[in-house]
């Protein structure tokens, strides 16, 4: 069974709230522009673009259709029509246009991803560097992690004051909208990827322990991106703990199950 993690940005709040190459010295991460091929098909009905989606990006296309949009199976004889029809909604067409304008260039995101994953490669033994791609969803998910890939849903990063996000029918709070902007793409990629590697334990734990777990991941994200984006009491607890335990490395921090040490 394919293992897919769907993780919303709001989860971070609630818990407190390309081809790729790598070596020990260098990690290359570049966002693959699956979204451009997707946009080409959905705005011009270019059948060659659809064929490219299925041929060059079979897993991404299957995940989008079956797990993100949930409109059917990728081998359904009618799926091409369903897929195209789904995005003919005027709101989604507006989102496609806006996403392609705002993200015409993603070199800054590539640079930040490289910096973050170079850090993680040095700190966590045997970590696999994921393949990263961009797509346009339907305002459902932000980051999708699974099968060695990270999918960035650009529709969820169009800016705090993007007009659609302000509409009451979507119900986004100001805290949610604050995280729906470009600067959160890389931190979310790193955070949700780490969460897929270091998930919550299977056995029941308290809310405070869940918050500590997320606080540890957010603290590591801060180290990976080079500045304190996530600031809350649990991140502060981790900061104090690491200051007192300078011999503990990041891999040990993320692996320990002794939540009481942070409370």
Secondary structure elements and pairings:
Blueprint: E1 4-7, H1 9-14, E2 21-22, E3 27-28, H2 34-44, H3 47-56, H4 58-68, H5 79-86, H6 90-102, H7 107-123, E4 131-135, E5 143-146, E6 149-153, H8 163-166, H9 174-178, H10 185-197, H11 207-225, H12 233-244, H13 250-255
Parallel strand pairs: 4-6
Antiparallel strand pairs: 1-5, 2-3, 5-6
Helix pairs in contact: 2-3, 2-6, 3-4, 7-10, 7-11, 10-11, 11-12
Task: Describe the structure in brief.
By secondary structure, the chain is of the alpha+beta class.
Characterise this structure.
By secondary structure, this protein is an alpha+beta fold. It has helices at 9-14, 34-44, 47-56, 58-68, 79-86, 90-102, 107-123, 163-166, 174-178, 185-197, 207-225, 233-244, 250-255, and strands at residues 4-7, 21-22, 27-28, 131-135, 143-146, 149-153.
